[in-house]
Amino acid sequence: MAVEASGSGRLKVIIVQGKNLVIRDFRSSDPYVIVKLGKQKAKTKVIKNNLNPVWNEELNFTIGAEPTGLLNFEVFDKDLFKRDDKMGRALFNLQPLLSASRLSKILRMSAGETTLRKVVPGRDDSIAEEYSIRCVDGEVVQDVWLRLGGVESGEIQVRMKYVEEEINL
Fold it and tell me: Which residues form the C2 domain (predicted)?
């Protein structure tokens, strides 16, 4: 029985934490994050009265054979009696992660930890600092800080894991 990569898989997006988020209520904010990938959408829980929240929350997405290249992150302040306030947004290009996943499959990496690629911030992205894409025990993983746009301050830390599906022939 042959096993072949299908070009599709699962993307786990862990919203780790936020730092220096903007104040949208009297002295603080009640932040949550919405993540969109194409038509898929997922949301974290709300953290009350916190400008440096820790979510550690995993959101799952399906990547098709023709994946959408951008993840869209939006941070909001939860309000009870009016529309939730925007606290920033960030875009993230998935192509380096998907390319590193293909490389790990070609190299047949499964045990241990290996750095596959380093990515440096560019003018057109939300990346706050250089990061590495690693293969950890067969999973392609990256940890990245994203600078929030459209607001005075704020960053979110995100960990992404991509697991390519296999088809048994």
Answer: 1-107
Reported in sequence order, the residue ranges of 22-154 that DSSP labels E, i.e. its strands, are: 31-37, 40-43, 54-63, 70-77, 85-93, 113-119, 131-136, 139-147
Instruction: Give the pLDDT confidence of 89-129 residue by residue, as tens digits.
Output: 999 998 888 888 888 777 776 677 888 888 888 777 788 88
pLDDT of 163: 80
- What is the pairing mode between strands 155-168 and 139-147? antiparallel
Instruction: Find where tokens 């241990």 sit.
Output: 112
Dihedral sign for Cα atoms in the order 103, 145, 151, 44: positive
Question: 25 vs 19, 49, 133, 154, 168, CA distance in Å?
Answer: 16, 9, 37, 15, 53
Angle (nearest 5°) at CA 135 between 45 and 42: 20
